[in-house]
Design brief:
single chain, about 575 residues, mainly alpha, Sodium/glucose cotransporter, 21 helices
């Protein structure tokens, strides 16, 4: 392995990144409204501009794990993964026109308040607890994984990495609230782009031009997009990437609280929809560039694969290994790359601190205790700080959790599809009830986690690599061929189908239980003859308004049944 090299300029760039992030938090703590109200702290007073929100939507879920993983994916399995960006383009209008208007119209701080208005308090609590566990586990890994990878190739001590990144993130998230999170995401996104673009530029120079990357990649079988199989056991096909990508995107950008909270930091629905539309090209540009960086590294190492040559021990170390190997002679460049990788983690963790604080105060604390408004702001800051420290603690013990590392990432995928199904049943049907969606959610998550964790399962087959140009003898391990039919069928299903299968499961089971096991709906318990159209997706809401011909002087929003301060005339 290349000796780790991290010079003075590299350390200065890393330090500047952390200091700048904390400075933004301090600035917003002592400017404007000074984060004295929850409206400012959690929702930036709903007066943010479109650009920082659009960029933050991308940065919130583009973690270091994503950047390192997508690069290795394209290197070892080919560029097929880039097709997922088509799904993002299809999903964006669906999220902006069918889901977002409901959340924006209700103007609730917690996304899961919708579920109580539509179904009842039990499903709200179940969904918010599921979200909390999902995000806590995921962010512990987001903080830990890049630290251990970068330590192995740059010499950056993992404990120092975790402490510096975790503490810096906790400070600026706690002090500056949502405004600090959004503006630091702008800075961190710039560094993420810089890190990935630097790899593309260097590999292009190394192999003789940008076009040469694709020539070499094609010769190595990395540009094969011909798999249109409908077999769900095929790891990546057009169908799995587009349908799976569509479901995954909607589970994140249509109903996930972290993203919905950001989409409510602007003043109007039209501006919120523009944020979502602009986040798509920002996300896809980074995704496509990261895919190309993987091909570029393949072109550079086509005759001497670092993993086979035992220069690295895991495929996720590929990208930082290339940076240290190829860019070490330029002062500051490795530091810029590391800053970009850590920025990807910072943006994800800060988003989660703020979002989880909102859920904690509104779904748990305010549910059982009558908290005076004057105490809400500092209690929310305390919650954000506590979650940052929890992420730190989980990152430190992650090395002792063994297989739970992969388990946490699997949970993140397996939970998203079922939760999307719950919100979809609520917004697109009037018959779904709390019993139905609760049974659907619990059973859907159980089945998806079983499918995801079950073993033994066949290992994915990598594309061929070479070690002929290494200049030293390399022992290539001989992997005996396996017969996929020897494995239990559900364990062979591609991970890309986990989210759509969970979504369909909840829709089907939730519908059947709701129709067979009738239950009073919230509006019936409140003595109303029909549901509030504001709880449904715009096309259905329009039909309901036309059907019941509501009169403004008579009808009230169902929100009145829960909080008289939120009554709205329809």
């Amino acid at each position: 392995m290349t000796d780790p090299v991290f010079g003075v300029w590299d350390w200065l760039i890393m330090a500047a990144t952390m200091v700048a992030s904390m400075a933004i938090g301090v600035y917003f703590r002592f400017s404007g409204g000074k984060q004295k109200t929850n409206e400012e702290y959690l929702l930036a007073d709903r007066n943010m501009s479109i650009l920082p929100v659009a960029v933050s939507l991308m940065a919130s879920f583009m973690s270091a794990i994503t950047l390192l993983g997508v690069t290795a994916e394209n290197y070892y399995y080919g560029m097929k993964f880039v097709l997922i960006n088509i799904a993002y383009g299809i999903a964006t209008p669906i999220a902006s026109s069918l889901y977002l208007p409901v959340f924006f119209g209700l103007q609730k701080t917690s996304t899961y308040e919708y579920l109580e208005l539509r179904f009842g308090p039990q499903i709200r609590l179940l969904a918010s607890l599921t979200y909390t566990l999902q995000m806590v586990l995921y962010n512990g890994i987001v903080l830990y994984a890049p630290a251990i990878v970068l330590e192995s190739v740059t010499g950056l001590n993992r404990l120092i990495s975790i402490l510096v990144v975790g503490i810096a993130c906790t400070i600026y998230s706690t002090l500056g609230g949502m405004k600090a999170v959004l503006f630091t995401d702008l800075l961190q996104s710039f560094l993420m782009y810089s890190a990935v673009f630097s790899v593309v530029v260097f590999t292009s120079i190394q192999v003789g031009g940008f076009g040469e990357i694709f020539v070499i990649a094609k010769e190595g079988g990395r540009l094969d997009f011909s798999n249109i199989s409908v077999d769900p056991t095929e790891r990546h096909t057009w169908w799995s990437l587009i349908i799976g990508g569509l479901s995954t995107y909607l589970s994140l950008y249509a109903v996930n609280h972290t993203q919905v909270q950001r989409l409510q930091t602007v003043s109007t629905l039209e501006r919120s929809q523009k944020c979502l539309w602009w986040s798509w090209p920002v996300l896809s540009l980074l995704s496509v560039t990261t895919c190309i960086s993987g091909l570029g590294i393949y072109a550079a190492y086509k005759d001497c694969d670092p993993l086979t040559a035992h220069e690295i021990t895991a495929i996720d170390q590929l990208m930082p290994y290339y940076v240290v190997d190829a860019m070490r002679h330029i002062p500051g460049l490795p530091g810029l790359f590391v800053a970009g990788i850590f920025s990807a983690s910072l943006s994800t963790i800060s988003a989660s601190c703020n979002a989880l604080a909102a859920v904690t105060l509104h779904d748990y604390v305010s549910r059982w205790w009558n908290v005076p408004p004057s105490y809400m702001a500092w209690m929310t800051k305390l919650a954000a700080c506590c979650f940052g420290l929890i992420f730190l603690a989980l990152a430190f013990i992650a090395q002792h959790l063994g297989g739970v590392l992969q388990a946490a990432l699997t949970i993140f995928g397996a939970v998203g599809g079922p939760l999307l199904g719950v919100f979809t049943l609520g917004m697109f049907t009037t018959y779904a009830n709390e019993r139905g969606v609760s049974v659907g959610l619990i059973s859907g998550m159980a089945v998806m986690l079983w499918f995801s964790f079950g073993s033994p399962r066949p290992a994915p087959v990598k594309l061929p690599v070479s070690v002929e140009g290494c200049g030293f003898n390399v022992t290539v391990p001989v992997v005996p061929p396996t017969n996929p039919s020897d494995y239990f069928y559900p364990y062979r299903i591609s991970y890309m189908w986990t989210s759509p299968m969970g979504f369909v499961w909840v829709i089907v089971v939730g519908s059947i239980i709701s129709l067979l096991w009738r239950q009073q709906q919230p509006w019936e318990r409140a003595g109303q003859s029909h549901p509030d159209p504001a709880l449904f997706t715009p096309p259905l809401a329009k039909r309901l308004r036309a059907k019941f011909e509501e009169k403004p002087s008579v009808q009230m929003s169902s929100a009145c049944a829960h909080d008289s301060s939120e009554c709205t005339v329809l």
